[in-house]
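>> received
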Amino acid sequence: MAADDQAMTFEQSVQAAIELDAPLNERLAVIAGAVRRMNSEFADAVDRLVDRLEKQGAGAMAPAAGEAMPGFLLPDDEGKLVSLAEILAKGPAVITFQRGHWCPYCRLNAIGIVEAQRQIAELGGQVVVIMPERRKFAQAMKAAVGAQFPFLIDMDNGYALSLNLAIWVGAEMERLMGLGFDLPSYQGNSSWFLPIPATFIVGTDGIITDRFVDPDYRRRMDIDDLISALRRAR
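>> returned
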């Protein structure tokens, strides 16, 4: 690692990842590397969390390609109720779950999708982000990434739980995350549950054509894969 990388603050590393001209997962790896460099205790705890989730098969029972995407009716960042049927009436959809406005990986993931908004629109695609936070935090994240698509609010992870995507972070991560993040305030509850940040590509017939589900929140569906999947869903 270069000396100037070592001198970067965490936010500078996040900004460097945002500005990097590379596939999304390479950009996300920059953030993961900064976390490990600056807080090895936290990075090691994340490794243990991911290992536990992988051994438990977390996310494996989420809806799969070829299955119908379960419907939802959720409020958006403006308080309007939005249904899956309403979205699919406009075109194939990218349904992506994000952990929260505080998560730099989620911020970069959303920015990657924003950068591809023109390509998505040319394919007739619709995008919705689903996150388990109060409306003001969803609004803040939408504004921060410059998104034109809606951010839907899944309070108490109700929809994520129905898809077998919600996980408890565990006592160790609850303690460590609590040093910097007030999830009970963000979410309006003290459960310390988060969604696995999955992405589903859904055709206008409501059938999932592709999905990305990984209990390691440091990895996401690459944008090129998302665009290719959206083409298949048309």
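>> Strands lie at 73-75, 81-83, 93-97, 126-131, 151-153, 166-168, 193-195, 199-202, 208-212.
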